[in-house]
Design a protein that fits this description.
Structural class: alpha/beta
Order of helices and strands: EHEHEHEHEHEHHHEHH
CATH superfamily: NAD(P)-binding Rossmann-like Domain
Shape: globular
Strand order of the largest sheet: 3-2-1-4-5-6-7
Largest sheet: 7 strands, parallel
Helix content: 40-55%
Number of strands: 7
Number of domains: 1
Bound molecules: NADP nicotinamide-adenine-dinucleotide phosphate
CATH topology: Rossmann fold
Oligomer: single chain
Distance between the termini: 42 Å
CATH class: Alpha Beta
């Protein structure tokens, strides 16, 4: 585990998983202006990306390259939190990925659950004892978590898990004055789509309501500061949330299948 510039022991820190790209990187840029934080800890597998980001921030930043599903990496993270007597103010669980094909045609179904659900839960669990009162957890979910998705069965289920987990934890941590916010954006143009293999511009349905990464991150931080358990940014995402509550999911899935969505 690599240690970069540090601000000393007992620092109040933010930990961001998935910080090497997309919205995780944007959160790091935004938190660089947060006066409550002394240090930002950046986590992802691509060390070069993390180093580049750390160098661009004005706050001391520490890079912790590794795979969040690797138990050894998580143990090292815990050791580092303990050794530095760090107090976690902000934990952002942004590491995640999605692949969209028929369940039987995908070879990464278990891996999606491992990264999006199991590792997110494990990182949250190891960080919680070191979280300050007044702190916050921001979990990247998705509109995909509002209802089941045809040819996105595991991804949508993994994000439904993140929403459900976050909302229950929000209530459990109220007495500790820690806020948990599930962020549910529509598609955002990030490397997510390179990994997923979907050509977003060629998909008329996925193209609807593409969200801006900067706006989604800013809104999520604002909602968490207001003590809200959900952050749903755009009108399209809010509409999808309402639809998911009104229409029978069987009907939505039937439509998705028939329309080749
Ligand atoms: N983009 C969208 O349309 C969209 C919409 C709704 C929700 N989301 C969710 O938002 C979150 C962030 O996505 P994004 O759009 O920012 O995508 P992204 O640009 O692909 O970022 C994903 C991040 O996760 C990290 N990551 C993936 N697997 C990892 C692993 N095993 N260990 C450690 N780090 C890992 C990646 O870093 P390394 O590759 O360097 O490890 C990267 O930093 C995800 O949870 C995603 O499901 C995205």
């Amino acid at each position: 585990m690599t240690v970069e510039v540090t601000s000393g022991k007992n620092a109040t820190i933010a930990i961001i998983t998935g910080a090497s790209s997309g919205i995780g990187r944007q959160f790091a840029i935004d938190l660089d202006r947060d006066s409550r934080l002394d240090e930002i800890w950046l986590c992802a597998r691509r060390e070069d990306r993390l180093r580049e980001l750390a160098e661009s921030l004005s706050k001391p930043a520490r890079i912790l390259p590794g795979d969040i599903t690797d138990k050894k990496w998580r143990e090292q993270l815990l050791d580092e939190i303990k050794a530095e007597r760090a107090q976690i103010h902000t934990l952002i669980n942004s590491a995640g990925f999605g692949k969209f094909e028929a369940f039987c045609d995908l070879d990464c179904n278990e891996r999606m659950v491992e990264v999006n659900c199991q590792a997110l839960t494990a990182v949250t669990s190891l960080c919680l004892p070191y979280m300050k009162a007044g702190g916050r957890i921001i979990n990247m979910a998705s509109v995909a978590g509002f209802m089941p998705q045809y040819k996105g069965a595991v991804y949508a289920a993994s994000k439904a898990y993140v929403i459900s987990f976050s909302r229950a934890l929000y209530q459990e941590l109220k007495d500790r004055d820690i806020t948990v916010t599930a962020v549910c954006p529509n598609p955002m143009k990030t490397e997510f789509f390179e990994v997923s293999g979907i050509e977003i511009d060629a998909n008329p349905i996925k193209k609807i309501g593409i969200e801006d990464v900067e706006k989604v991150a800013a809104k999520a931080l604002k909602r968490s500061d207001k003590g809200k358990d959900m952050s749903v940014c755009s009108l399209t995402a809010k509409t999808l949330r309402v639809i998911s509550r009104i229409l029978p999911h069987r009907l939505v899935l039937w439509f998705e299948r028939k329309s080749g969505f």
